User: Fold Extracellular solute-binding protein family 1 from mine drainage metagenome.
Amino acid sequence: SSMATWNFAKSKTRRNLLGSAAAAAIILSACGNSSASASTATTKAATTAAPVSFSLWESHNGGPVGAAVTALVDKFNASHPNITVKVVVTKASSKLPAAIAAGNPPTLAEISHYDGTLVKGGALVSWNSYLKGSSELTQSNVFPSVWTNGLVQGQHYRILASAKVSEVFYNETLFQAAGSHDSANHVGSTCNRR
Assistant:
């Protein structure tokens, strides 16, 4: 899953929400980090800015992931008195087309990894300008495949909220004994043999 910000009608409110949304996402992604420098800087900025409230559509229907997201948002809201993030548990990816068409998308959403049509349709806002000011979320402290995952023509349109590794284990001798020489070569060419 990944976090994305929507490109809805340009307005002063939109700019305020997008700036706050970017700050919130960067801080929420770094809440587990022991360094408080970015959080402190964002807290200072939040206490001098006008109050802002926005929604975060979360796709997990509870359980440990939903509880963790709620706890992170509660911690963020408590430490940023002028920014309020409201978590809405919903099927974000399936409900987004209707919300975008109605002109009422969430500010942030956890969406599917397959959001190319949203980028092509101009529905997402690039995160590049927000990432440049972050000391917590930089290319040097993120795995390369995670960092580049949301890139489209050099622009970050999403930030992965989670990543996983899929493995395939097989016995090459059994593959060959079963007459599946091509399958063994195909699996072996896409995976590191050990």
In short: The first strand starts at residue 2 and ends at 5. The beta strands are 2-5, 52-58, 83-89, 108-111, 151-152, 155-156, 159-160. The chain is about 45% helix and 15% strand.
